[in-house]
Amino acid sequence: MEPRDSVASTSTRPAAAGSRFADRASAERAVALAAPMLEAALADKGVGESGFLHVVVMDPALTPADCGFESAILFEYSTPGRERWDADYAWYAREKARVAWRTGMSTDQVQARAPHLLRGEESLLGGAVVLDGIVVAVSGANPWFDEAFALSVASLLRATAQEKRRQQA
Question: In the CATH hierarchy, which top-level class contains the domain 24-168?
Fold first, then answer.
């Protein structure tokens, strides 16, 4: 899996502790478990025509009150790789994640039920979910498939965190 690009945080807040059980290793494992599905979907033009996907997983224990957005990114994954991208799918996925992380709502929920929470510069694209506080965004497919893939990764992260918690019990 491709590690996320390192980006310096512009936050002046002190570093907050991230999730005890939904850590980077858990996020990597969740994405690895979803990867066969994600990679198979790239061949289906009904899923999307780009042929690329980018996934952003946020640390569920960190909120905008704790740190800046970049510091809360737990893991990112691209398939196949970024070298042939026709658009900046990482940027789109991050912008979707930013809306969901800030509002605590999936992007489709914000747009349908709470458009008053959207700020002028924020993305109107769907494809980010919030599942029990876990924020995951995907970009590269049609928005309804981006959302389905994000929900799959979020569910797998919840499962890997549960597994880790039970192993430490």
Answer: alpha beta
